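tool_call predict_complex ligand=flavin-adenine dinucleotide
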Amino acid sequence: MAMAWDFETEPDFQRKLDWANDFVRSEIEPLDLVLGDPYNKGDEQAMRIVRPLQQQVKDAKLWACHLEPELGGEGYGQVKLALLNEILGRSRWAPSVFGCQAPDSGNAEILARYGTPEQKERYLASLLAGEISSCYSMTEPHAGSDPGLFTTQAVRDGDEWVIRGEKWFSSNARYASFYIVMAVTDAERGTRGGMSMFIVPADAPGLRIIRNVGLGTESDDTGSHAYVSYDQVRVPADHLLGKEGAAFEIAQARLGGGRIHHAMRTIAQVRRALDMMLERAVSRQVRAGSLASQQLTQQAIADSWLQVEQFRLLVLRTAWLIDKHQDYQFVRKDIAAVKAAMPVVYYDVVRRAMHLHGSLGISNEMPFSSMLVSAEAVALADGPTEVHQMTLAKQLLRNVKPADGLWPSEHLPTRRLAAQQHLAQRLEHEAADI
Ligand SMILES: Cc1cc2nc3c(=O)[nH]c(=O)nc-3n(C[C@H](O)[C@H](O)[C@H](O)COP(=O)(O)OP(=O)(O)OC[C@H]3O[C@@H](n4cnc5c(N)ncnc54)[C@H](O)[C@@H]3O)c2cc1C
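tool_result ok
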């Protein structure tokens, strides 16, 4: 009998996951502690170490699993990708070694979906092969959450588009070979219809990184979120990505996948924080015994496990819905829910784990401080929590009708009266039979 619900992983794929788990822990996590930025393809020494590892991933049929086979991926779907990403998310380098790192993964998806054959040949092929990095340049210094306020402009001039404006927090711009830039092409038409996407080569005259901004306490030279100036940057007309005016639709297609993939990787980080919490609880002694024997520690552990497992189920269910419907718009509500839940579970579990480690936890000898910054980063990147809460609530409210009359439909006296009327005849029969 076919099962309606099944939480088992196919044995074949489970073997792949087991291999990936061992491989990430033994071969990739050491890279995190020694090598520089995974997006810097110009770091020859790092690339010499990484290329053979990428080959092993390809041999294991786990390369670029977010993509369909015609684009060099495996086409496993989102549930299997989630199971893999909750391993890869442990490590800074793992997504690049497995060919599924953001923002390149999202950029590859939109190039594949909206790009012309020439654009795919020039930009997509080497991106998919992991030979170059890319950047997505949308947010502006004065406006992020509301794209309706963006002012970077692209004006058609003969066979070229001329782009002028500034962008903010364009991740990995310093290592990117090309940028995907969102610009206003028809101010009258607003976000839907008035904005377009462009592919801009990194060496286009007029494109300048004003500075590379870091997260938290990262030093200026390691920051990788660029403040970028586009000063009359000219790109050929064929560098428009998708139709003129279609930027909003393209951005939604890109960000839908991006958001759920971040969530899959976040599961790895919160599990890691929980594991550290468990180890600390049984290792650290107070006079009454181990921290693990203290009920308040037990409460912190129980609350954390519950939050992690609830979040994981929400992510897996959403991945399953994407596989089933093959439409990010259709699962907007679910993706918004995942996006809003993600920073809460991330922050709560990491903060508890950090606290349980005492002064060591807050020191730079443990990873908790940067994990806390990451928890806040996922509350902002791809849109702040509030915007996703609004999307979720609006979707839930969409088909709800107001109550008839003065009282809510669950008002007990009103329901009781209706129930008595509904059953009146049968109650009369019963009374007559006695
Ligand atoms: C790690 C990281 C990487 C990023 N990478 C990129 C990238 O590669 N490319 C790119 O283009 N952008 C990138 N961003 C930018 C990101 O998309 C923006 O930070 C995000 O859209 C929010 O915009 P903002 O920072 O301007 O905040 P604002 O729009 O100024 O919002 C600030 C706060 O105001 C509140 N708020 C805003 N709107 C509403 C509302 N409607 N209702 C209620 N409250 C509201 C929220 O509390 C919000 O956190 C990245 C951000 C981070 C943190």
